[in-house]
Amino acid sequence: MSALRQSGSSSASEGDQRYACMDEKKRKRMISNRESARRSRMKKQKLVQELTKEVSKLQVANRTIVAKIEETTERLTYCTAQNNVLRAQEIELTDRLKSLNDLINHSGLVTDVTNVADCLLKPWQITCSMQQISASSGLFQY
Hints:
Low-confidence stretches: 1-6
Distance between the termini: 152 Å
Subcellular location: Nucleus
Pfam families: bZIP_1
Helix content: over 70%
GO biological process, one term: positive regulation of DNA-templated transcription
Protein name: Bzip transcription factor 53
Organism: Nicotiana attenuata
Shape: rod-shaped
């Protein structure tokens, strides 16, 4: 019986060693898993921080672009208003010039009115000659 006990005790000690070995593997695996999870959390945290920084940079860039768009829109509105004023002035001055040309044509004082009219309609062209237009006091009676 003692041989059986010895063989039984030897098998029990082999089982303990096997369990001890399995427990050691399980413990090492658990430590490895914990370390891997910690690295994964650190990596995820680093990624979140980088993305947060990128979001901040993009928000600043977006605010800059929005400010430029608003400034450009204001400039456009101002230029459009100025352009409308200048167009209205052009129409008014063109009408006045036509009225004056009609008055001159009916008075018979100047024979070459087209040269004067072209020169006045296109003042940036200096090629036309300037002519004096004489007016009598009786011409502008209403």
